[in-house]
Every structure is written in structure tokens, then in C-alpha cells.
Hints:
By secondary structure, this protein is α+β, with helices and mostly antiparallel strands. Among the domains are: 19-75 and 90-164, Alpha-Beta Plaits (2-Layer Sandwich), CATH 3.30.70.270; 270-434, 2-Layer Sandwich (Dna Ligase, domain 1), CATH 3.30.1490.100. It is built from 15 helices and 15 strands. The protein has a five-stranded mixed sheet. Strands 9, 10, 11, 12 and 13 form a five-stranded antiparallel sheet that branches. A hairpin with a 2-residue loop joins β14 and β15 (433-434). α3 runs antiparallel to α4 (140-155) and α11 runs antiparallel to α13 (342-356). The radius of gyration is 26 Å and the shape is globular.
Amino acid sequence: MENAITTEYDYSKENRGVFFLIDSKSFYASVENVERGFNPLKGDLVVMSEQANTNGGLVLAASPTAKKDLGISNVMRQRDLPDVHGLFIAHPRMNNYIAENLKINNIYRQYTDDINLLPYSIDESILDVTHSWRLFGKTPEEVAFKIQKQVRAETGVYLTVGIGDTPVLAKIALDIEAKHTRNLMGVWHYEDVPTKLWPITKLDDVWSIGSRTAHKLEVMGIHSMYDLAHQDPYQYRAKMGLVGEQLFALSWGIDRTDMAEVVVPKSKSYSNSQVLPRDYKRKEEIEIVVREMADQVATRIRSHKKQTCLVSLFIGYSFAESERQGSHGFRKQQRIDPTNDTRKLMAIMVALFERHWHGEVIRNIGIDYGGLIEDTGVQLDLFEQPEKSIKFNKIDQVVDEIRKRFGTTALMRAMSKEKGGTAINRASLVGGHNGGNSYE
């Protein structure tokens, strides 16, 4: 192979910690199985989206046996499910999953502190137990088993654990090994890299390598993780920039992440988007949804004591319209005077829509409020009486308080009862699925 090198990493100069990457196995399906008294690993169950905009529903999660024995995969449509006796279909209850996730992470906190715990997603967390594992067992594997056992006893959920000298080794150990072992555990040290990581030839099986990156590497003559580790790293930097450097480090299991320095970024904008339950053609119906969403995001920025100076509207066309137009839709921005006034923001977003919509059939709408500044009080309008601005600000505050105390549907705008409105049906959704408050 051209440019092949024999570079070796001196691991003595790298930090060697003890990291657990823990995954709640088939999490949504497990929670539903447990609540019905089924074994999470053996009950044939799928969690199925119930929204009309998915044309019959999509599989969000499937139990291990449903995947293995029935061939069910995530995002399979309801119409494609096998017609077999004993397959249980559950609707998503996102608040339940969030509550169980919090319960599980609180168990993790018994084994490490908050600085060394990073919830990675709703079903995965990273634990740095480098300085604490000896308090709970003779080996890291013993501690991991205790965590598995405790979570199983308190929640019924099975855990899969990747253990590594670095976070990235723990993640790869989880994905490549732990999910296929009897004890649902995989252990990867630096010394295992040549025998466990380098033989991998399906590059996009490895965490952080997507199909497009894998294809780019194939074009460069990289056909395995061994190849990736034994090419000149400067070649990667020249062709792929920083990503190339990171890939080379990945091939050697190097990850210098300091958990204590991982910062959850503060939101620079607040947004909401939705796939409409059907194609929308009438201007009046589309504007109802635009107003509803403008109201919802305005509520969010007020709850975070912010005002917006930059608004953005996305309109996505229906499939047939996209084919006709040769475009998926449009996205438009507008700078505005700082505000979090629902009345003003609804008017601005509707006006933005009217300027750029020319009768196309649409299926997606998205609204984003950026350019956020601290809410320091009512921004008075030269073209409006101060008393009127203050009055509407107080109305917004009262509406926010009522919704906070009694739920978002306790006080809805009359337009949401009209044909085309979606706010009432969406008020109880979390992440687009049943089970939460979309105004939070």
C-alpha cells in the first residue's frame, strides 16, 4: 500500500482511565415490556408511532426477540409488520422513558459524581470511574456487573456495558463486542487495538465513521481500521482536515476527552418544526399552524428570559410539489427589533410566509428564534402606545402562568379549534411522540 508507515503510538504518554459506556438495551421497548410484566429480552413487543403524519405509524423501538425472530427493524412501517400472534404493539409514552432514564442515571450517580457522568442520549451514558471503581469491586468488570444487577432489580431494564481505557474505546467495545456477548459486556484496552479494532473492514460499523466518510476512505485506499492506523496521518489532515486527524487517533483508540471539561452548549436559538398530518394547500390553514408555532416558540423564549432579534421560517413542500418545483421548499430569515411578544412574533412570521409562499402544497413547517438577548423588559414601539405594549406583555405572562400550572391545553387560542390547527393534538407530544408538554 502506498504511503504505508509503521508509526506506533507510545501509550505510556496517554492517559489510561476506566470508562463505562452504558446502553439501556432496547430502551423504549424494555420499559413497555417491564410495565406489562414481560421479560424485556424475550417479550415480542414494538413501540409504534401513532401519528397520522407517518402514514400508518413507524416502529420506534423493537424488543430483541422481535428483531431476531420476527425480522422487525426500527423505522419499519406498521403495514410491513408480520401478522403473528403474540406481537404486542405499544404506543410511545415519552415522559415514562424520560422518568426511567432519570432513575437509571441516579443509580449511576452512586458510582461516580456528576462531573464524571455524561448522559449521552436517552438510553446511553458515559461514566468515568477511574478514581471510584475500587470503592465498589475488585475489578472494573465486577463494578459494571453490580450496576447491571442494580438497574435490573430497580427498573427491570437490562444494560449493555462497554469498558475501555478511553471513552472512544468504551464506545467501540459497546457497539462491536458487548451487544453480542452473553454477559452484555465488552472490555477493550489499548493492547486490544491490534486484535479487536484493526481487523474491522466494515468501516462504518465503527462509531463516528458514517457511510460517506467510509466511502471517502475507501477511495483513498483505506479498507480496514489497520489501513487507517498505518497511513501517514499528515495525508489525512491534508485531505480531510481536523476530521482526518480524529480518524487517525480513533484507529489507535486515542481519546483525550476530559469529562470534567465537557460543556453542554447553551442553546443559541429556540425552534420547533413539524411534519403536518396531511398536505396543506389552503393559505388560511397554513397560517393557523404558523401562528400556533410562533406562539409556542415565543412561550419557550419567555420561559428562558430571552428575546429574539432574528427569526427564521422553513416551509417544506409535499413530495409531489417537490417533484414539480425541483425544490424541497424554502427557508427565510428576518432581523427584527428585540421582542418575545407573541402577538408581534405571530404577525412577523405570517408576513414572512406571505412574502415567499406562492400557492405551493406544503407538508413541513419550521420556526426558529435566534439572535437571543436577555429579556430586560418590554421593548417599547414608536408606533404603538406604551400602555398597549405593556398590556399585551402582561397578557403573555398570565397565559404562560396558566399553561405552566394547568397544562398547555388549559388555555388555547380559538384558531387552534379551526380546521388545519395542530396545536391541541401536539400539546402532549415529546420529541414528536405521545407523552409530554411541547411548550416546555
